[in-house]
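Morning!

As promised:
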Amino acid sequence: MHTKTFVAVAVGLGLVTLSACGSSNDSTTGSSAKSSKTVTLVSHDSWAVSKSVLAAFEKESGYQVKVLKDGDAGQAVNKAILTKDNPQGDVFFGVDNTLLSRALDNGLFQPYEAKGLDQVDAQYQLDAGKHRVTPIDYGDICVNYDKKYFADHKLAPPTSFDDLVKPAYKDLLVTENAATSSPGLGFLLGTAAQYGDEGWEAYWKKLKANGVKVVDGWEQAYNEEFSGSAGGKKAKADRPLVVSYASSPPAEVIYGDPKPTTAPTGVATGTCFRQIEFAGLLSNAGDTAGGKALIDFLVTKKFQEDMPLNMFVYPVLKGAAVPAEFTQYGPAAKDPETMDPAKIAADRDQWVKSWTSLVLK
Amino acid sequence: MDLARTEVAPGRRRAGNAARLGLLALPVAFFGVFFAYPVAAIVARGLKVDGVWRLGRIADVLGQSDIRHVLWFTTWQALASTVLTLLLALPAAYAFARFAFPGKQVLRAVVTVPFVLPTVVVGTAFLALLGRGGLLDELWGVRLDSTVWAILLAHVFFNYAVVVRTVGGLWAQLDPRQEEAARMLGASRLRAWRTVTLPALAPAVAAAALMVFLFTFTSFGVVQILGGPTFSTLEVEIYRQTSEIFDLSTAAVLTLVQFAAVGAILAVYAQAVRRRETALRLVDASVTARRPRGAGQWALLAGVLATIAVLLVLPLAVLVQRSLDAPDFAYYRALTSEDGGTFLVPPIDAIGNSLQYALAATAIAVAIGGLAAAALARRDAGRLVRGFDALLMLPLGVSAVTVGFGFLIALDEPPLDLRSTWILVPLAQALVGVPFVVRTMLPVLRAVDGRLREAAAVLGASPWRVWREVDLPMVRRALLVAAGFAFAVSLGEFGATVFIARPDNPTLPVAVARLLGRAGELNYGQAMALSTILMVVCAVALLVLERLRTDRTGEF
């Protein structure tokens, strides 16, 4: 008897569900709710903010903020582009200068000039004329080294791209897949900026011959392969050089348990590439007013000063204070490699393709 | 009136045709809207520029050495996986067919558990066994992750049951007296086996091998987790090209290539299955098995049991052990807290999401697959209908990634604006459930004597009543088994779900994959705990099925 009922129910349910699906547009579960005052932020997995700071914004603006973290930076951008006609949220945060052109060319964002933008340093405003995106933070992608390893081996840590291909540093470096990870791509662009269109492939051939290891993402490279990080020590990692951020050494101190008196890792200052992250109002946002308020909030002093310790990046707002650990253990690079977004847009895909064939295959 | 003049039989045939078309209408519409259209949409997005098809891209893409490398690796690893699976599983098929030993029923279920496990869990289990800090690493310092061995072993683990069930099921029903008769007539043991048993088994072996080849050719989750950046199958490459590199035209070309390959595999498969349906002298499986005799047979059985223990049970045991590797079930308890890191919700919520999605998907798959099977089972089924039979299998082999992305870009406009509704996930999962429903139901429905239906009809029963009184009682069990398989498969579906599940509503496999992608022991431990839960749910579903199943000739 029971089985009969179950089958009847199962079949009936299937039919009902099917016939209902054509007209179930309004039974959406939690898309950017248009009636209630909720603003939805789509971002990558690294998004973080202090609860109190976000609560203050919610109280002031009257908007509840809902955050959807959608994988790593590249995936989040690509998925946002694929779904731009019917976006998952109102604001997207986390597109950086290396992927900016892809987002802009695909019409991901609509223009909005954030309040307070005049207080943001002009060098970060890569879309200044059109205001489709607003710069929020910047950071430097640099090779980090394990101080203890180099002290134990009485070896000077590398300081430049050139050093990394020297025999003394054979089999020491781990980096991320440039096709799948933003620090990996940043490092590749850094070498392309340094050695030019003609020279970067030859450099990577040497790097490969010198035993560079490539893993898929930052988490794996930094926390499992790099011997200098807390995670790496636990995992008995054996690579003392890793492509990470200039702000990674202060993170090791701040999150250290027990807190070390000095950073266990350092930065090879001649290997840095600057990354700037932007936020923008999505083209088909359901709640543009809420989205605009949220973007304004991202460039307020309150958020900008909260950001460094949450996402380990530097504020773009003039006069925003940076924690002492940052200036002490991981100052922003003095002369990082940079690249014109138009150049990145033109060559990125080809570089990544060549890089993949050259290094991975 | 026309009808008055025509004879009865053609009239009834016409009615039969109409009924069949009626039954097929819903499955055809379902596959049109939720499979063909999204796949076509994503392919068009990649290959159509300003309204003009750029078919030249196909040659461009196939000319690239790294793409050819992917094609080569995909084929090579699928072949190697299939051969390895056959080598390891055929002895087990024999042992299950011919030997009686205590615990056989339970062991048969145990062997099948891996097959319904989500690929993500399989990947996780092998990572725990072969990866950094894994069991082999701790014991002997051996690490096999990011090597092709990890992938091959995981594929064997995954597909062992396909061979044991497909080949073993038939083997158990072959009359051993035929081989004995051949030996009596003077044939050597080998010759008797070669001339009597092998020809009878060959189509089943071929069908199993082709299924394994299909599953490994399109492998996604396992390769994604174990392969590292260097190894990718077509399916993984489609995912990378779409999601990471955003080269939609390359992804579209690869989708077409995979489509063609899978179509070819399925065509050969249909051939093999048809040959298997040729009459064999079958006997009841219960009379063909006896206790092993002699050292050789005992050794064979011991070998089979040892293989199962090491290859199938050990990875799962390591998974469970890792999930308990913290005091006081800390990893399980962590699942209930909102960590603010990976998800908006506590990971435990993924279990509820998954169960709901899987139930809805099962309902859809049973409805669609049941209708399709009912239409296909009719003896007068024409060529067109048989063609549809093959089409129903396509979702098993066509890139789930493509389907997922297709859903995102195709189903986002009225009247089919489903992108932000929950139903999207069950719809995608039902696509892979339907083939299992059809394959389970079809042999049973075909076995129902058509004369019973006719008799009922002649006595005045309506078609619905005929179905209820004649077919349903006979197929009820098969229907439940089909539902169970669809449920397990939906529960574990990863490739399509990973794109369309919203970050605030992750399913279990999606949650496992994302926890694995984050650093930290707690995340890893939680991934193991969630995988264990998923494994237990799948195993329970399967054990229930094993009790229900009476007829073992089904294809899965």
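The first strand of chain B starts at residue 48 and ends at 49.

Hope this helps with the figure draft.
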